[in-house]
Amino acid sequence: MYILVLNAGSSSQKSCLYQLEAELPRQQPEPLWEAHIDWTVAANFGSLTVKSNGIKQQLELAHRESALDKMFDTLVRGETKVLDSLEQVYLVGHRVVHGGAKYSQPTIITPEVKNAIAELIPLAPSHNPAHLEGINAIDKILPDATQVAVFDTAFHSQIPPAAKVYPLPYEWYERGIQRYGFHGTSHQYCATKTAQILDKSLDSLRIITCHLGNGCSLAAIKDGICIDTTMGFSPLEGLMMGTRCGSIDPQILLYLMREYDLNRDELNRLFNKQSGLLGVSGISADMRTILAASAEGKERAQLAFDIYIHRLSSSIGAMMASLGGLDALVFTAGVGENAVTVREKTCEKFAFLGLQLDRDKNNARPTNEDIATSDSQVRVLVVHTEEDWAIASQCWQLRLSNLDPVT
Questions:
Q1: What is the value of pTM for the model shown?
Q2: Is 152 a catalytic site residue?
Q3: In this structure, which CATH number among 3.30.1360.20, 3.30.420.40, 3.40.50.20, 3.40.50.1010 belongs to the domain 200-382?
Q4: CA-to-CA distance for 7 and 39, rounded, in angstroms?
Q5: Which residue of the set 69, 139, 152, 375 is catalytic?
Q6: Where are the domains of the chain?
């Protein structure tokens, strides 16, 4: 059975194709085909990179409205062909950033679900529109395929009220203002992978997963269940990120409105696009560039890094309090998996707990590996997040439990 995964962002589209049989494999397979559309190349212009059959092909995209058609065409034509017909795709899984309070599990997409995703656009304006674009494209290209929404918010749906409800008048919680949390698919996958690497039962572990990319969040996971997380009502809350400020005094927003007459669009751009590493350093939102500039003596780059580590370690401490201790600290995503210095400086903050990082392992580009010393009181892991495979697996399991037997 072929499962197509679409992972849409505001400026990109990642897709891959898996072939699964009657049982899920113990080890995740390599996708048959992978594609990545990047719209940051230039205004109204993009690039498509496709990998399959041992080759890598790059194509130019001049029109966004026809980009998905061109991408899907590479599945059935040319050197990247892996299918005889698109109709061979039976399931299509979509990563959907915001599912609100209603959707706590992978869900077959119906008109009602599409309407719900659309209604949540104000809470995820950079992402939910892109998800709908992909869903509508599949409706036209593969009308007989079953589409499944895998919500980033779902894994956080069991967060207890003390962590979920904001200290506002309770009526606002009843109107939907609460902590939703994001990156859930990644956090869930990494927690499960951590238990496998440590050869322990997931329901016996207290884990903090650090998803550190351009967007950053932590999750406190106890017995396999998320009980706290740093992102909240929106992906803006919590840690300092590439271009997002994370948590700040809300009075700052009111002050900027009153004293500088900033409107909501200007505030949104300031907090989401112009802050974080980029805003403080004035150089870049990319941690690699920040570290290089810091090594060259650029003071604002060093300040940006110091703030990043301070806020990250402070939030890890908060997650640890929610868990009542810690068995494993996990780093994942672009920064978490690749930034040696981020892991080192963060772990130094918790040496008082008996957490000891093996410097040689940390420096050796670890992947899916425990990099703590043998006598460390807390395990430290680097896990390569596999959101696409997690989505494909959840789609397969949903079909098995809700539809006809897999054939």
A1: 0.90
A2: yes
A3: 3.30.420.40
A4: 14
A5: 152
A6: 2-151, 200-382
